[in-house]
């Protein structure tokens, strides 16, 4: 983490696209990630706004408070970036990152362009009431109203401090759909849980909802991701291949010395010896914490011996 402001930006898909996303999770969730990141980086690179290379961590949520299917990504973005020549840190205005209306317009245009191209390549599938969209002409006609409706992109207040970012990530990145604290009862009526209603005169109302057990399970299973799909992704300056180098450059420009804490002599000794094993995914050295000895195989169950 670096000692700068961190901003919280949310990109949401319209209800109609959320409906077809359920049948095309990997494709549409992937587009949601990539187009949201592209939008942030494009607007931030524009000299009319920030004129800098930025980084972002995006976290996918697919649920609303009532467990409905509501795909959106939360973006956690440092409040600034590197100048194009990487010689300066360009900070955004205090309390303001990027204009959300500009973000919304570009996000809508780019997402629809890529969604249409994806359908043209035959990478989308439609069933039930949406089966007719398998015809590309029908799909483009269905898509047309999406170009005129508002797409919800909004920025929350910046995090109070870098530690608050870590607190947010620890609470929300590995929770799926509902936490235990929201569960109220399980009885003959079904499952009762707390939820927030955002539609009452623009205010948030805390309510309780009871669903039959099978409906509760159905809603929960809406949010199971495709196998191997990553719900947290890093882009730009925070992308995995170059993150270490970029963070070192940013700290240098900000005059920040990273705190290196050695917990014991073993850690120091390990750091001094070149690693024998390297992670094939990220290239980082792997540390041996234990060696499991191979046990002798059991070739057959023991046989009882009869004694005279």
Automatic annotation (TrEMBL):
Keyword Transmembrane helix assigned: yes
Sequence ranges assigned to domain Transposase IS801/IS1294 in this UniProt record: 55-241
Swiss-Prot/TrEMBL GO biological process terms: DNA transposition
Transmembrane segments: 6-23
Top-level taxonomic group: Bacteria
One term of GO molecular function: transposase activity
Pfam families according to UniProt: Y2_Tnp
Keywords from the named record: Membrane, Transmembrane, Transmembrane helix
Record flagged with keyword Electron transport: no
InterPro entries xrefs: Transposase_32 (IPR007069)
The protein's name: Transposase
Organism, scientific name: Caballeronia sordidicola
